[in-house]
Design goal:
The chain is of the alpha+beta class. It folds into two domains: 4-124, MutM-like, N-terminal (N-terminal domain of MutM-like DNA repair proteins, Alpha-Beta Barrel); 142-265, Helicase, Ruva Protein, domain 3, CATH 1.10.8. The chain has helices at 4-18, 41-45, 142-148, 156-160, 171-181, 194-213; strands at residues 23-28, 52-56, 59-63, 68-72, 78-83, 92-98, 102-107, 114-118, 254-258, 261-265. Strand 2 (52-56) and strand 3 form a beta hairpin. Helix 1 (4-18) packs parallel to helix 6. The longest helix has 20 residues, at 194-213. The protein is elongated. The two termini are 28 Å apart. The model is unreliable at 218-222 (pLDDT under 50). The chain binds a DNA duplex through loops.
Length: 271
DNA sequence: TTAATCACCTGAGGGC
DNA sequence: TGCCCTCAGGTGATTA
């Protein structure tokens, strides 16, 4: 389940293979994704050279002279570099064939992802222009979070998972960051002080950086562009450990649902 | 404007 | 073994 570290790991994995390469062919086996793949997408891509591979939030941006291919991996999507002899497995929905003979293969069992073309400045696309800052940018810190939280009654966990506040913090890392910062996930965002927000911002950055360093978190479906799993799951302190003991105080970890999401916390360490 | 809920989708896992 | 049900989760759309 790709969150920001998984998307960044994917970006770093595919970039060396596709930057500077021309698209020869596009094979669409299943156009029904979150939004249907446009009929004219292959025609727009063929003949274009991939100038760079960027990322904004959990969106990958394949930039060409004519426009940008925006890719979202949804819940279960992955991108892999394969050669033309590689077998096509179930849920391998799209191949972007390059002049090197390699292919960028999009696989997505649950089809929550998307491939969209835009000819405009990609950051002005309706999906991207209202997004909050990148969590690893200088713009994102405790002061920023504190200002954004004024008069907000929503729970802190839903608050930091809101892409208009900060992008890329999904359920796994929200659980982990709140545990590390000692903040109860149900606490109202507007009732947390500046000092605690400063600690939370530091923890979000630290956890995301560590997850990127080890190649993301592998739970069920995620593999990186080489087809290998990430290793951050071995570092998870609360997520997926409900009923187990807190690593700090040995109390039993509790599980609740917030915003329809599984939320695990220690009632002794988080207030 | 904010908060809550729904919808999309398939595979894994548990219960019978 | 096979069937059925629940759960997992990102995010835009809809509703209150």
């Amino acid at each position: 389940m790709p969150e920001l570290p998984e998307v960044e790991t994917t970006r770093r994995g595919i970039s060396p293979h596709i930057e500077g390469r021309k698209v020869d062919r596009v094979i669409v086996r299943q156009p029904r994704l979150r939004w249907p793949v446009a009929d004219d997408l292959p025609a727009r891509l063929i003949g274009q050279t991939v100038l760079s591979v960027g990322r904004r939030a959990k969106y990958l941006l394949l930039n060409t002279e004519a426009g940008t291919l925006i890719i979202h991996l949804g819940m279960s999507g992955s991108l892999r570099i394969v050669d033309e002899t590689a077998n096509v497995a179930a849920h391998d929905h799209i191949d972007i064939c390059l002049d090197s003979g390699l292919r960028l293969r999009y696989r997505d069992p649950r089809r929550f992802g998307a491939l969209l073309w835009t000819s405009q400045e990609p950051l002005q696309h309706s999906l991207l222009k209202h997004l909050g800052p990148e969590p690893l940018s200088a713009e994102f810190d405790g002061d920023y979070l504190y200002q954004q939280a004024v008069n907000r009654s929503v729970s802190i966990k839903q608050f930091i998972m809101d892409g208009r506040v900060v992008v890329g913090v999904g359920n796994i890392y929200a659980n982990e960051a709140l545990f590390s910062a000692g903040i109860h996930p149900r606490r109202s965002a507007g009732r947390i002080g500046l000092v605690r927000y400063q600690r939370l911002a530091v923890m979000i950055k630290k956890i995301l950086l560590e997850a990127i360093r080890v190649g993301g978190t592998s739970l069920r479906d995620f593999v990186n562009s080489d087809g290998n799993p990430g290793y951050f799951s071995q570092s998870l302190q609360v997520y997926g450990r409900a009923g187990g003991n807190c690593i700090k105080c040995q109390a039993k970890l509790r599980e609740i649902r917030l915003g329809q999401r599984s939320t695990v916390y220690c009632s002794n360490c988080q207030h």
